[in-house]
C-alpha cells in the first residue's frame, strides 16, 4: 500500500521571504521596508505552530535571501564605482570653443553647454 505524502503549506514567514526575494529580483527596494516589518511581526508572533520542518524551510529561504542581498550589494557597489570613474573622466574632459578658448564642461550641471558636434 502506498501512503500519500503529507503536504503542509509553507509557513507564512517563508512566504514573506519569497516576497522579499521577488522584490529583490525585480529591484523593488521600496517594497523591502514593509515586507521586512511584516516578517518581523510574523517571526515575533507566528500565525501557526512552527515545527522542525517549518523552521528548516524558513532557514533555507532566509539563506537564499542573504545570498541574493549580498550579490545585490556587490552589484550596487560596482555600479557606484563605475559611475565615479565616468564622472572623473568627464571632469578631466577639455574642449575648445570656435575661437580656440579652452572650455571645461561640467557634466553634473543641468543646462550645461553641450560638448559640441562630432
Q: Which secondary structure elements does this structure contain, and how are they paired or packed?
A:
Elements: H1 12-25, H2 32-44, H3 52-91, E1 95-96, E2 102-103
Antiparallel strand pairs: 1-2
Helix pairs in contact: 1-2, 1-3
Largest sheet strand order: 1-2
Give the tally of structural domains: 1
Largest sheet: 2 strands, antiparallel
Mean pLDDT: 86
Task: Tell me the quaternary state.
Answer: single chain
Structural class: mainly alpha
Tell me the helix content: 55-70%
- What does the overall shape look like? rod-shaped
Overall radius of gyration: 26 Å
Give the SSE string: HHHEE
End-to-end Cα distance: 80 Å
The fraction of residues assigned to DSSP E strands is under 5%
Q: Which stretches of 5+ consecutive residues score pLDDT under 50?
A: none
Our count of helices gives 3
Number of E strands: 2
Using brief descriptors, characterize the structure shown.
118 residues; 3% strand; mainly alpha; 2 strands
Amino acid at each position: 500500500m502506498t501512503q500519500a505524502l503529507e503536504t503542509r503549506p509553507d509557513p507564512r514567514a517563508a512566504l514573506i521571504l519569497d516576497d522579499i526575494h521577488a522584490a529583490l529580483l525585480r529591484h523593488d527596494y521600496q517594497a523591502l521596508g514593509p515586507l521586512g516589518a511584516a516578517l518581523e511581526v510574523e517571526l515575533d508572533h507566528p500565525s501557526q505552530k512552527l515545527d522542525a520542518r517549518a523552521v528548516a524551510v524558513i532557514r533555507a529561504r532566509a539563506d537564499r535571501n542573504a545570498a541574493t542581498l549580498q550579490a545585490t550589494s556587490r552589484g550596487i557597489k560596482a555600479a557606484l564605482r563605475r559611475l565615479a570613474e565616468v564622472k572623473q573622466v568627464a571632469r578631466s574632459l577639455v574642449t575648445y570653443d570656435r575661437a580656440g578658448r579652452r572650455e571645461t564642461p561640467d557634466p553634473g550641471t543641468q543646462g550645461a553647454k553641450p560638448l559640441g558636434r562630432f
